[in-house]
Amino acid sequence: MSERSATDQPSMIDWDFAVSFGARTAKRPPEITPEDAAQAVAELRAGAARSAELVNDWCELGGEVGLAPLLVVDREGWIRANASTFAMMTEPMVDRITSKSARRGITHAIGSKATGGEVGALLGFLSSRILGQFDPFHGEHGRLMLVAPNVVQVERDLDVDPAVFRLWVCLHEEAHRVQFTSVPWLADHVRGLVQRLTETVDTSSFTPEKIKDVLATVRGNAERPSGGLAEALSSPAQRALIDEVTGVMSLLEGHADFVMDAVGNEAIGPDAVAVVRAKFNERRKGLGSIDKLVRRLLGLEAKAAQYRDGYRFVETVVGQVGKDGFNAVFSSPETLPSKAEILDPDAWIARIHPQNAEQEQSE
Hints:
This protein has helices spanning about 15-25, 35-60, 75-105, 105-110, 110-125, 150-160, 160-180, 185-200, 210-220, 230, 235-265, 270-285, 290-300, 300-325, 340-345, 345-350, 355-360, and strands at about 70-75, 130-135, 145. The chain has about 375 residues and is mainly alpha-helical. The chain has one domain (about 15-355). A three-stranded mixed beta sheet has the order 1-3-2, with helices on both faces. Strand 2 and strand 3 (about 145) form a beta hairpin. The longest helix has about 30 residues, at about 235-265. About 35% of the residues are buried. Keywords: Hydrolase, Metalloprotease, Protease. It holds the Pfam family Zincin_2.
């Protein structure tokens, strides 16, 4: 992708440099022979194709199978794809920061390559940790990406059966593809939340002193999962939006995790799924102290909590009102759970299925 076209304001981020710098700073991929690499790619493609029917049938959301295209990529391919998405989603905030910075001369002092390098470093760090991703904002139906070297690396680290792990990962990502392609309003709703968040960022918060204070707070607060710099720099109004985004993302990630286990129990076997799930959950806690610190700064600990809390929400709701009752969550934006309801599934059931809640109380 090329840097944003010239306007009356200078560009704040050199996206081409972000991609190249991210690719250079990303961790080296695992050592693998060309034959094994080709087999991994083939198995991921086959796993995605098999998962499409399995997940779509299990979810019963009435969507069509395989609407969104599938890409099996390396780390640089993931960086390039996400740079495009980041540029699109952050454009309102970048425009505002660029405008104010230009008047103070900061843009010229720092330069678009410096900020591009910061974004690239973030993308480079994340590129070795993402196994797969559904991008709902690309094209008409979104796109599904599987990052082959990362899948190979993690299956080796966990010492699990590659065939089992590859299919299991595909089940999770396919669940996201089913969510967005079966629920027509969902992508626009999520896009709207993110845009509202970026458009309301108080750009005066982006000062060296403020960021230094936030870094100290994030490092020192070990009592709760951190939402990272974005949450710490936000205003009360923005934190309300963040809570709304968190509720939606917790639902989507928890639902995908629940589906991958439920379908995996049938397609792979409950014993194999239990082994992979236990090892994978340990991995989500982070590795060394440096990795854990970076995860806190980026809000990845909060991301792990989204998986856990969302899974419990889906498990509880399906257990009480069944799959059909749970699927009411996708009826409209109003039926989505709030962040508070994610932590209290009974409250969501009482709001959406009051008759069921009353019956539970009478019993």
